[in-house]
Each structure stands twice: as C-alpha cells, then as structure tokens.
Amino acid sequence: MRLPAPSIAALRLGAAALTLIAVAATFLSTASRATINPFNFFGFFTIQSNLLAAAALAATAVLVLLGRAVPAWLVLARAATTAYMIVVGLVYNTLLVGLAGGVELPWANTVLHVVFPVYCLLDWALVADRDPLPWRRLWAVLVYPVLWCAVVLVRGATDGWVPYPFLNPATGYGSVLFYVLLIAVTVVTAGAGVFGLSRVRPIVRVSESVRTRG
C-alpha cells in the first residue's frame, strides 16, 4: 500500500501536536490548582519521553514533506524514542493504571500513555521510510535513560525530589541500583524489539522517494 508523503507527514505532525497539547494542558491544569516547579513536572520519564518522541517524529515528518533524505542519526533517535514510548505504555498499562498520582486529565493521560505510544510503534513498524538499523548501534537507546537516572539520583541526594519513590536514595542505594538496572534492561529489550522491527518489511510505502542518508 502506498500513501503520499503529505499524508504521512500530516499524520506524524498531528500525533506530535496532540502530544504537545496533552503535555501543555496537563502542566496548565496542575499549575492552576497549585504551585508547580517546572523542573519537577518536566522531570518525569513519561513527560520527557513523550516530548522527545514528538520532536523526533515531527522532524521526520518535515523531511518527508520536503522530500529530503532522513539522516541516519534521526532514524536512530526515532528508534530510541519509540523504545521509550513502548516502555511508558507497557509500564503504565500493566503496573500503574488506576493508581493515584500521574497525569490527572483523563484525555491527556490516555494520549500520553496509550494513544501516542501505540502510534509511535505502528508508525515505526508499518511505514517504509527507514532502513534496517545495525545492532552495533543498539547501545544508543541507553544514552537518555542513563542521563535521566543520573540527574534523578543527584536531585534525590541533594534537594530530595525524585519522580518515582523507587528511585529515592532514602530507600537504600542497593534498592535504587536494582531499579536502575531494571530500567536499563527494560529499555534495551524494547530497543531490541524496535531494531528487530526495522528488519521487517513494512506494508505502507511513501509514494515519493524518501531514503535514509547514512
């Protein structure tokens, strides 16, 4: 099946825009009820992952719309952010759904934890505008989670704020290390799945030639 480049770009830009609106609405809703520290709000893995994935998807959409080659680094970034969105969707919908806290606007919560993760996965799996990714680059999916964990641990040890209780140094660094390693394993597993999907022949092809530039 072939779709024109503008249609693919419109879908991606629409998904990215909806995600940005959901994040903004959640921030404004929270700020309207209580004083909110932006560094805390934007410190959550869910929020950051959604923003990173939206940025990667929007950048790819613009290049597709312009008929330009998608750089290999952007394909890799999109693969990594797709893995993060898979983690967000799976963790929330299997472990956290129904629990107190998190995104309080129901529609925004659905967008950030269900709609956008599913869209990112389907877009990656179905649309043929990326080449297979070499396994030697799988390590790249860990760059952001490692940096995120490092910042969280520093903040937890200094100002006492952590986005999730299991990363609080007060629980003991042995426990924290266990969860950090668990996060790493989960992200690498999701990344391996995304890399594997890049080798599956997609069913949706862009009508205009859009190739990855290595």
TrEMBL record:
InterPro entries: Pr6Pr-like (IPR049713). The chain crosses the membrane at residues 43-66, 73-95, 107-126, 138-156, 176-197. The keyword Repeat does not apply. It comes from the Bacteria. Keywords: Membrane, Transmembrane, Transmembrane helix. This is F420-dependent oxidoreductase.
